[in-house]
Structures are given as structure tokens and as C-alpha cells.
# Entry
Amino acid sequence: MHESADTAAIEVRGLTKRYGDTVAVDGLDLTVEPGQTLALLGPNGAGKTTTIECCEGYRAPDAGQVRVLGLDPRRDARRLRPRVGLMLQEGGVYPLAEPGEVLRLFAAFHADPLPPDALLERVGLADARRTRFRDLSGGQKQRLSLALALVGRPEVVFLDEPTAGLDPAARRLTWRHVEELRADGVTVVLTTHLLDEAEHLADRVAIVDAGRLVALGTPDELTHGDDPEVGFSARPGLDVVDLSRHLGVDVVEQRPGRYHLFAPNDPALIARLAGWLEAHDVRLGELRAGKRSLEDVFLRLTAEDDSTGARQVAS
# Structure
């Protein structure tokens, strides 16, 4: 039975974790409501994995409090583990074991598991059920890891890079599994470096940098922001000095082929941009007016965060 809606599925308050002189997580506050899908984003070393491991009970906080389904992940581990599913990126399976027998073993740990054979079919591993783990492809190992996380009908699922190494078709299949979990009222926390994945799957996105929360909100709230903006894609290396002079606004190439105009969305400005592109025989790849991509938001916040705390986009 799932937790009632008036109890947070995950509540983190003042979480701090140090490794020697390094502060991996620095006073982090975060709440995930029941049935919500949260994408936890951040550059390498930002504290994502440590935060997740504290929620899973694998790490003890140096300060602060963590509650999952109202329970302490370490003190109440025996009560909590049957209610939580964990998908790790790699490891945890004996190399000579077969997916079918591993899934049946994990199913035996739960009172009301999903049928192992049906679950193998669901994640696309029916034809590999008798293949040794060491002989599975990277994508097949990922799908088995997902099946192991789901077999116990968990109320909360932690997915660590769930589509890493998957081809586009398998990636879309995994997305569908996450969407089904949300439809069933399961709380999902996923980490990913694929920002389109976060934008597609998440109800809310949390961005962490240097162990602190720097932004929190829905994908729509984060990408619209307070001020309309203009961005476009074209061939790399445009003369942004000349373009800035022509438009009368600052233009920067944020990364190869992706340009940002520091100006509001104005029809006359868009017309001047189109005229300049035509005069220089430059094909327009994409034009975004009034909305940033989640990637733009992520890069800006993680590059320019002043460490004064989270930019709370929505209450």
C-alpha cells in the first residue's frame, strides 16, 4: 500500500556529507512528493550520487536528516528495503548467473513480486533469459538492472542513469516504464546526463552544483524563466561581433553552433536576425524565442552559480 498523499515520499533536510576535507553535499534540502518523478541533475562531482546513496541508506549523513516513506534509511533499513527499488549502473550480479534465475531469486525476497517471466518480457530480455550475465550487452545489463529494481512492486524507485548505453529504441522503452511507474503512483528519482530525458520524464527537476541545490521547479518553469529570451542554432563559428553590431544586442556562442541573444523576444529583432543570416548564406537550424532549453539552464546555473542557495522557481 502506498504512502498517503500528506506524507512526503522523500524528505531531505540540511543534508551534509564530507569525505575528508571535501564537502560532497552541503546543507541540501529537498522534498519529493508521493507519485512524483524527480530528475536530479548536476555536473560530475556535484553530489548527486552521494545524495542518492544517503537516501538509499548506503551512506550515513554527517549532518541533517533523511526520510524515505517516513523512515530513516539506515536505522529503519529492514522495514524500508522491501518498499524501495534500486537501479544501479553496474555490478551486483554474479557473472555466471542468468537473467531468469537472478530475477527469480530477487522475486523470492518479496511478499508480492511481479512475475519474473512477464517482467523479463516487459523489459525486452525474454530471448536472453538463459544468457550468462557476463555475456549480456551493456544495454541488456541495464535492462536487467531495471527489472531487478521493479520486481518487488516498490513504492519508491531510484534510477541511476537508467538509459546509459541503450540504443534509441531501448531508451524509449525505458521511458515508457518510467511513465508507467508514475501512472501507478510510484515515486521515482532518477539521475541522468541526458537533459532531454529529464525534460520528458520529470514532474520536477532539481539541479545541484558543489553539493548545493541551485534550481528546483518543473521543466516548464525552469525553461521559461522570468524573462523571454532568444536562442538559435546554426553552423559553428559565426561572426558574433558583426552579428551583435547588426542586431544592437549582445550575442554569444555558448557552445559550437548554439547562440544566445541577450534580448527579449521582439519581432523586429527576429526579422533582423533572419536578414543577417540570409546575407551571410547561413541556414537556421533551430530558433527558440521566449523559452530556453533545459540544457541552457543547466549550463548557466552550473557555470555561474554564486553558491548563495537555490533558485526556487516554484513553490
Notes: The chain has two domains: 10-223, 226-291.
